[in-house]
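Journal club side-thread
Mid-discussion, someone asked how the predicted structure for our own chain would compare to the paper's figures. Pasting it here so we can look after the session.
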Amino acid sequence: MIAQTIQLALAPVFVLVAMGNLLNLLSTRLGRVVDRARALQDRHVATSGPDHDEVVAEMRAIDGRMSLITRAIRLLVISGLAIGATVAVLFLEELAGLSLQRVAAATFLAAIALLMWAMVLLLRETQLAAAQLRIPRSYLELERKI
């Protein structure tokens, strides 16, 4: 019977692996955003007028991105804990002879809901990043034929 429990626990473990990959992606994005924020902080004190306003606007966007990424990381970590609880409940059910299927289902569903919420935050962050990186139309010189 323990072999069957191990087989049952494999699905949540695969979800945990996927969450680890997402955490890696998010931590990389956070590192890049933090590096950009530090560069902007250096420019903040050295600029004035319209240049300063551009720096402040970008810093505000960066702050929003950092907030979204850290919230997504937090949700993924809690989701990972819920996956771990699901696996523990599956083994506890088998070893103690208890009926904990509803508890296992609830912890797994909670983990999936948290994972989906984190992915929505990742989507919002990437949309914000893409909007922030839009090339100003004046730079494209669309009136010129090249």
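Post-session note: The chain has a mean pLDDT of 91.
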